[in-house]
Specification:
Length: about 375
Amino acid sequence: MARVFDITAASDTVRLDGKGQGEIAFTASNVSGRALRGRAILVPQDPASKAWLSLSGDAERDFPPGGTQQFAVKVAAPAGSKTGKYNFRVDVVNVQNPDEDYTQGPTVVIPVTLAPPPPPPFKWWILVVAAVVLAVIAGVVYWLLSPKAMVPSLAGKTIVDANTLLTQAGLKLGDATSVLVTNATQVDQVLNQDPPAGQKARPNSAVNVEVGVAIVVVPSIVGRSYKDAVEALHAQHLDIGQVTNTNRPGTTASLVLSSTPPPGNSVKSHQTVDLVVQQDQVPVPNVVGQVFASATAILINANLKVGTVTGNVFQVSGFVPLPAQVVDQSPKTGTLPVGSQVNLAFPGGTVAINPVLKYRLTEMATPHHW
């Protein structure tokens, strides 16, 4: 064997990082006195470490006489490698005569220490389960130790009375479910309850009930007073909906003119019924400047009447009598009860109109419905 190369290592130990990786440099010098082409060879002394070693760059390089080359060796020990010291070296041979011209490099140690295993991941579900268990235990303890309320009997009671009884017992009314009944006496009455009567319940807890409802007929209320209509609807377990006031000439105050749904319709109990009602008070129209017949017609259409008439309703122009115009009225503005009188004043002082003429003029102004 001819020693043609001189090989040195940067250190006798390769320092590995936390990932098991490291690097070390070897320097090879041509001491043969002639130009050579050398090849670096990794020689692990433990077969297990062979796969850990790799050269950076070309393994074969040209060496002029006295020339040097540096070979970098990378080490990558995989996780879980057995603890110990692993040795290797770098040899360099003459490519033209490898069997005779070669040099063994110094031995370098790879110290491998057994890294402690990573801690197992924290099992958060344990905290969730523990929290749920504690909450259940706390709920049970609270239920056992907290004061209890006795559920009263609500059967046959109205919703209003049932709510009062529950409030007095320290409970509250929950869901109210409608149940169709054929017996009218069961309308608006509690039929069933949950929890049942006599059971103990936590204070302020809800009691659900079933309440009877029925199919009823809208009564005939058109032409009746508003008060009578309300009483008739309530007697049928119906409720008052929207009330619209209107003014229909010649109609008595507070008289019901129509209903929605109309009379005779079958509806569920406590359906709202909208009403159109003749209003009690009507605005006073301005009739100043009108002749007697026109003023009378305007007042009648406003559901009012002509009251005292003073002055002359006719004026003579030459020998032709002409209708005079209203010069004043009382009251002038505001509202009056339906059917109230409005006094009219015409020119000519305080001469009252002939009653027969007034009747005839009023008849002419009154709208007739054929």
